[in-house]
Every structure is written in structure tokens, then in C-alpha cells.
Hints:
seven-stranded mixed sheet; alpha+beta; elongated; Nuclear Transport Factor 2, Chain: A
Amino acid sequence: MKKNILKCTVVLLLLAACQQGPVRYTQNSPEIETIKKLIDNYDNKAYGTSMYADTSKTYYNTKDNPMSAVETMEYHKEAENVYSSRGFEDEHQEFEMVVTDDGETWVNCWLDWKGSLAANGKEMTIPVHLTFQFVEGKIVREHGYWDPSQIVLELQKIAAEAKMAETEQTE
């Protein structure tokens, strides 16, 4: 009898040890699908805020001065004038969803952005990291990080060349 109780106890302990808790990391989730759709919308210039909570905050290359969802879409629309084409490359896209120790749900993605400047056709590829916090299926916080120096330097060069051409015409 004691052996049976001991065996049952060991079996129960083993079963309890094998029980998995909630998923804390995945590469497949509804939240990841939302971000893939958001990126597809960006690539197709379909700007909408339905994926964002009304109180969402977006930070691009900063930790200060967040933008609302509407301001974020306006930011992307204004940038359209600078590029003849732009979007995220299909290759080497990585997505993950994590649930933090505090129970926050975040989706991280690593992408390559490619664009051509409207002024001179120069093509540039820039690695981008985006991270999104979700609450009840909506984006409540977005952070984006990339190095814009290649674009800034090229735009400064274009502006300097235009200024020089303008000066030569007035002389």
C-alpha cells in the first residue's frame, strides 16, 4: 500500500512539473499578425489608426515627445515627398512576441527598410527595429529605432548642390 501511495505521489509530482505555464515567447500570435498588417499598410501607403488605442504613444529615435496615432500617420505621409519609392524588404524580417515578468505584451521586429530619394534617385537600405506594446489587442506604445544619418547626409548634399546652383545663376 505504501509503495502504491509513493508511486502515485511521484507520478503526480512529475505531471505537475511538466505543466507549462502561459506562453511568454512566441513567433506566432495575433499581435504579430497585427504588426505584419501595419507594415503592409505602410508599404502600400494605407494609413489608418484602427490598430492603435486612442491613447497610444509613438516614439521614433527618441524617448521624449511622443506622437499620437494620428500624428504618426501624418509623419509617414509627410515623408512621402522625400522618396520616389520606399518600404520594408520582404527578406530577413524577424518577429517575436514576449510577455514580460510584469505581464506586458510586446511585439519586436527587425526589418530592412529600402527607399529611393525623389530628388536624385539614390537608393538606401537601413536596418530598423520596431517594438510595440499591446493591451487588449491594440497598440498602446510604439518605439522605432534606426540610423537616419545616411538619408540626412544625402538630403544635406542635395540642398547644398541646389544652393550652389542658385548662387551661380544669380552671379
